[in-house]
């Protein structure tokens, strides 16, 4: 990794921007992961480092939805946290044994997948509000396992994926879906980051710097989210995801 003022400034700016995006709508990894790769960090290490950088923001999100979580059955929360824990660890271990060249080839497709899911979010929500949610209710647990395994493998857009899952399986209240998304994201993130740390995949200097700036960005993003129209926020995330997908397809 390059060690100069410009590199550290870019990493700090990307982390701050990621914190803002995550607070408003999600997709912050669209900034942190490419910034780390640009700085010279290998893709697998960049993914692990990025996961640690955005991890602190999840705890604030969970605290913000404590009322919604308290209203849910403890058995449901315990079961879904256990599933998320397993998924996060499985995904992280899979990443650690993936050959670097394979992961580099998969990244553009993962970025594009999450961007498309985010863009389709409103349509998925409308569809699930009808008969779609009841038909897919049985897929809640296996879908959560797959989504959290994806999150452990590649943290980019896991919040978007989890929110889409909950809407698809019939969770009709957006605030409750958001609360569950944040809770399970925090569980899988902590365990996957622990696996990355034990596996020696994290570059600690950039990770700690970016975690600080991502947290500050999260505070700023929460305030900005109240002022910007939702359509603008969604457009920013979708545009960022498409640009990053194209750049990684060109790079691959």
Structure, described:
The protein has 12 helices and no strands. It has 252 residues and is mostly helical. The protein has one domain. Helix 1 (5-24) crosses helix 3 and helix 9 crosses helix 10 (174-198). The longest helix is centred in the C-terminal third of the chain and has 25 residues, at 174-198. The chain is globular and about 50 Å long. The two termini are 19 Å apart. The mean pLDDT is 85.
How is the topology of this model organized?
Layout: H1 5-24, H2 29-38, H3 43-64, H4 66-70, H5 74-97, H6 100-119, H7 121-135, H8 140-153, H9 158-168, H10 174-198, H11 204-225, H12 230-251
Helix pairs in contact: 1-2, 1-3, 1-11, 2-3, 3-10, 3-11, 5-8, 5-10, 6-12, 7-9, 8-9, 8-10, 9-10
Transmembrane segments: 44-65, 77-96, 102-122, 143-169, 189-219, 231-250
Main location: membrane
Pfam family, one: TauE
Briefly characterize the structure:
The protein is an all-alpha fold.
């Amino acid at each position: 990794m390059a060690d100069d003022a410009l590199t550290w400034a870019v990493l700090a700016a990307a982390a701050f921007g990621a914190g803002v995006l995550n607070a408003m709508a999600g997709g912050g990894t669209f900034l942190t992961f490419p910034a780390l790769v640009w700085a010279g960090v290998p893709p697998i290490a960049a993914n692990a480092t990025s996961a640690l950088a955005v991890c602190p923001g999840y705890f604030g999100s969970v605290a913000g939805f404590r009322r919604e979580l308290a209203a849910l059955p403890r058995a449901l929360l315990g079961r879904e946290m256990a599933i998320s824990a397993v998924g996060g660890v499985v995904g992280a271990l899979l990443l650690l044994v993936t050959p670097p060249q394979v992961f580099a080839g998969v990244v553009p497709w993962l970025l594009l997948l999450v961007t498309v899911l985010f863009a389709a979010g409103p349509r998925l929500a409308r569809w699930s509000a009808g008969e779609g949610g009841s038909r897919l209710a049985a897929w809640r647990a296996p879908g959560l396992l797959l989504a959290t395994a994806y999150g452990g493998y590649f943290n980019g857009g896991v919040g978007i994926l989890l929110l889409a899952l909950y809407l698809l399986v019939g969770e009709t209240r957006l605030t409750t879906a958001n609360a569950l998304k944040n809770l399970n994201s925090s569980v899988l993130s902590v365990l996957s980051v622990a696996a990355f740390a034990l596996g020696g995949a994290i570059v600690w200097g950039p990770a700690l710097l970016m975690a600080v700036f991502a947290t500050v960005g999260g505070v700023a993003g929460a305030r900005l989210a109240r002022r910007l129209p939702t359509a603008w926020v969604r457009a920013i995330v979708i545009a960022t995801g498409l640009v990053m997908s194209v750049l990684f397809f060109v790079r691959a």
